[in-house]
Amino acid sequence: MTVHSPRSKASSEGLLDARAQFVLAEIISEHQRTGEPVGSRAVAERCASGVGWSAPTIRNVMAELEQAGLVDQPHTSAGRVPSDTGYRYYVDHMVGTARLSQNDTDAIDKLLGVSQSGSGVDTSRLMERVSRLLSELSENVGIVVSPALAENRLQHIEFVALADGGILVVLVFAPNIVQNRIVRLDEPLSQEELDRTARYLNVEFTGKSLTAIRAEIVRLLLEEKALYDRLARNAMLLFESSIEDAEGRAGDVYVEGASNIFDKPEFANVERLRELFRTLEEKSRLVQILGECIASSRSVSHVHVHIGRELAAPSMRACALITAPYRVGSGESAGTLGVVGPMRIEYARLMAVVNYVAQRMESVLREDAAQS
After folding, report:
1. Minimal CA–CA distance to 7: which of 97, 85, 95?
2. How many CB atoms lie within 10 A of CB 290?
3. Side-chain-side CA neighbours of residue 147 (13 Å)
């Protein structure tokens, strides 16, 4: 598993010595467990049976970590909490490759197993279940974003004449994503003409993306013969009407577990909580945020970790976002899945969870595409 992260001050200034890394790890571990500032006495007690460092020694190391910007002291008399820079250093230099527990792999494999009775994958329901699974495994917020519609391959198109003169268009994209819309043309078409047009489009364009189909249509329009071929003209008019605005549409967003953040002390501030909820509810903003987290890498096998101020949205400055892209079928289109939680999230395990779920989703959707 490869982890992609933004450059950070901590990672560019060299490594901490072993003692400082040990103390930082203890602060992070205790803060992850309690959500409270960690005092030198608590760290000294955890170290007493091992290295035997005294509380004053621990205090000195904690002061050095604070000076380096890796921990903060919320109040003069309080202990320390890891900063976003501290967590970045921890993720970049101290988190090893975690092995998922049998419970985790069993839960993921059960959900993403082979579909029953060869009936194929209901993509929308699958993504709903995956976002719920990520939420349950992380006890935070699970998010899944489907690929943008323009990137998906056309599987099938169908036209149905309606009594009021409209035309119902059924577009099926890989992996079994169905879009229905009603269009109206100036010139009425019979059901026979609609069926003939659908057959033409299915023969010519099945397996191609909307972007590729649009380019082909433009090429056909430039050919004079298309102007005199009624079938080609109907096909182009209907298809253009059917995909109007579709190319610019972002993928669908599935969010589960937003209520999990109610009990997190980081979000005790009501206004901060309200702002975070607004961001989670604004699907287009979420797509943008997740897209920004993956845009800096071309590989679809990376796990991405963004922490605190690395997230552009002010409402997420107290959060960590762990994401991975997943590829749909054998095509170019890719979606995103991930987990949002407080900065004290369980990084090693959840990075492994997100990576494994992305790989398993790719496998399921690739198999489904091959059977379609």
Report:
1. 85
2. 26
3. 26
3-state secondary structure (DSSP) of residue 214: helix
CA distance 84 to 49: 29
Task: Give the CB-side neighbour count of residue 305, counting CA atoms within 13 A.
Answer: 30
The owner of tokens 């023969």 is: 203
Residue 206 CB contacts under 8 Å (≥ 6 apart), including other chains: 154, 155, 156
> H/E element holding 229?
none
Q: What pTM was computed for the model?
A: 0.77
Looking at residue 50, what is its pLDDT? 58
Region 36-54: what's the mean pLDDT? 76
In whole angstroms, how far apart are CA 56 and each of 39, 131, 141, 275? 11, 46, 39, 40
Q: How far apart are CA 198 and CA 196, in angstroms?
A: 5
Give Rg (Cα) of the chain: 26
C-alpha–C-alpha distance, residues 201 and 182, integer Å? 18
* Amino acid in the structure at residue 70: L
Identify the CA nearest to 81 among candidates 8, 13, 32.
Answer: 32
21 confidence band (pLDDT: 50, 70, 90): very high
Beta-carbon contacts of residue 45 (< 8 Å; ≥ 6 apart): none
Residue 7 has pLDDT above 60, yes or no: no
- Do the Cβ atoms of 61 and 19 come closer than 8 Å? yes
Q: Is the pLDDT of residue 217 over 90?
A: no
* Strand-strand pairing, 334-342 and 319-327: antiparallel
